[in-house]
Amino acid sequence: MAAVTLDILALDRRSGVPLQRQLYRALREAILHGRLRPGLRLPATRLLARDLRIARNTVVAVFEQLVAEGYLAARVGVGTVVATLRPEALLHAPPAPRRSAAGTPPALSRRGAALAAVRRGSPDATPKAPARAFQVGLPAVDQFPIELWARLLGRRMRTPTRSALGYDYAAGLPALCEAIAQYLGAARGVVCRPEQVIVVAGAQAGLDLACHLLLDPGDPAWIEEPGYLGARGALLAASATLVPVPVDDEGLDVAAGAHAAPTARVAYTSPSHQHPLGVTMSLARRLALLEWAAHTGAWVLEDDYDSEYRYGGRPLGAMQGIDATGRVIYVGTFSKTMFPALRVGYLVVPPPLVEPFSVAMRHTGHSAPVAVQAALADFIGEGHFAAHVRRMRVLYASRQMRLLRAARRHGLVDVRPAEAGMHLVAELPSDADDVAIAARAVAAGVVVRPISTQYLGRPSRRALLLGYAGVPEREIDRGVEVLARVLQYGSRRSTARGLRSKA
Ligand SMILES: Cc1ncc(COP(=O)(O)O)c(C=O)c1O
Fold first, then answer.
1. CATH for 439
2. DSSP 26
3. Same domain, yes or no, for 82 and 155?
4. Which residue's C-alpha comes closest to atom 4 of ligand 1?
5. pLDDT surpasses 90 at 394
6. Distance between CA atoms of 337 and 144, rounded to whole angstroms?
7. Same structural domain for residues 338 and 254?
8. Are residues 83 and 126 in the same domain?
């Protein structure tokens, strides 16, 4: 019997893994895979230790652990035997594969499968390195005053209050809610009390929370067409029925939405700077949307994700500020003004939703770490936030100019200036395959997002989104050069006719 056991128990003295751990694993594996059958008596610890040339204490410790875990049983007068484990079939199941085998979809729910498919088809979905030209949505993270931030965060970590170490503040640290309410009132015309501010782990968490709390499975919800994939994901996660509503020069086409889904429960929109087209929703459309929402009892999800970066034109305040009937849920984020990995965003909810949203925050896991919230309140309160945003506004305006100049130099004619935001839209002819072009660009080292992946239905235009905010100037020049080459190849193959000028 000991010989059988010894065959199984090969210990490797050079592996660096402690012998005790090796012996434990080997015995457990042998039991789980049926090589040591239930009822089998193991050799005495002294004999096993001698045969394996290890200390007896080591064997005793391993036996004790396996007995405690139920793999072995100590029987008086018999010794240590392999325990009978139920259900047996489970024990002999092959180990779970790390990834599902090719072609076998994992067993997701229909909702899960829809959610997991949202980013499919976008060649920029998994960029390899940060700050590559022209990644969309990434601010200049290398310009962030990280040492100052580390100091503020360190201070809050070193001297936390008792509550800051417990379960309090799931819906937001009061000091931060206060700072956000003040900032939004002054900068965006948002009308709210600090209690209406719910701090979440990024705008995505806020959208997810709002969609889960406001929609029942199957409820129709408007989504801008083309629109933000994060919003699409949040609506799909709540099992909403997505209703694409076109965006034109005035923003979301409210009449088209009311025609397509008059009883939608939620309308998602990014009115101050539509993602991805960059349009600002007109006042007439805002009023029409609010009127429809008040009339039907729908909720408007107003995503104000990058309102801080406006370089010209007359900014319109947030729609929340002109909402007299309390239908707007305002969504904001620090991802663009600080850095995305901070994962802090916020909702401003109408008074009747404060209680349910705050309570639900305890069960969603969407809260932001309290020390980070405290440091952020300091960062805002001490004036660093406003200073950083001012500096970035100047930098991004100049980077946009740089991109426009480089585009002109290389004959990319259909890249137009924008009054706001962090990316430009490079229009392509309507028959161009923007996904294929983007894939070639990615292969050549430039990340661009094809606009057609932002459409739920049939894309009505083809374009590339070029993020510039987080891209150093020289990278912008180099990126445009590469892109021009990719497009030249494309136009030779007549996929991108018209983007490049004849010159
Ligand atoms: C339209 C829109 N909303 C919100 C966000 C920010 O999301 P988060 O705060 O989850 O980083 C982004 C970022 O790309 C965005 O493009």
1. 3.90.1150.10
2. H
3. no
4. 305
5. yes
6. 9
7. yes
8. no
Residue 340 sits in a domain of what CATH number? 3.40.640.10
Atom 15 (ligand 1) nearest CA: 305
Q: In this structure, are 465 and 396 located in the same domain? A: yes
Q: 332: Cβ below 6 Å to ligand 1?
A: no
Q: Measured in angstroms, how far is the CA atom of residue 455 from the centroid of ligand 1?
A: 17
| pLDDT, mean of residues 317-337 | 97
Question: Where a domain ends, among 354, 382, 410?
Answer: 382
3-class secondary structure per residue, 116-158: HCCCCCCCCCCCCCCCCCECCCCCCHHHCCHHHHHHHHHHHHH
As given in the structure block, the two tokens for residue 452 are 């057609």
Strand partners, 79: 75
Q: Please, which pLDDT band fits residue 313 given cuts at 50, 70 and 90? A: confident
Give the model's confidence band at 1: pLDDT under 50 very low, under 70 low, under 90 confident, else very high.
very low
Angle at 332 between CA 330 and CA 337, to 5 degrees: 160
| Residue 8 pLDDT grade (very low, low, confident, very high; cuts 50, 70, 90) | confident
- In this prediction, residue 100 has a pLDDT band, given cuts at 50, 70 and 90, of low
Residue 123 clears pLDDT 90, i.e. is over it: no
User: Using CA of residue 312, residue 314, residue 317, residue 318, what is the dihedral sign?
Assistant: negative
Q: Cα–Cα distance between 43 and 56 in angstroms, integer?
A: 12
Dihedral of CA 138/143/144/146: which sign?
positive
Q: Do both 442 and 408 map to the same domain?
A: yes
Q: What is the dihedral of CA 381, 384, 385, 387, to 10 degrees?
A: 130
Domain of 305, in residue numbers: 144-382
Ligand 1 pocket residue status of 270, Cβ below 6 Å: yes
Task: State which amino acid sits at residue 295.
Answer: H
In short, whether 273's Cβ falls inside 6 Å of ligand 1 is: no
Alpha carbons 434 and 437: distance in angstroms, whole number: 5
Q: Residue 496 pLDDT > 90, yes or no?
A: no
Residue identifier of the C-alpha nearest atom 12 of ligand 1: 305
Work out the burial of residue 68: count CB atoms within 10 Å of its CB; fewer than 13 is exposed, 13-18 middle, 19 or more buried: exposed
Does the C-beta of 345 come closer than 6 Å to ligand 1? yes
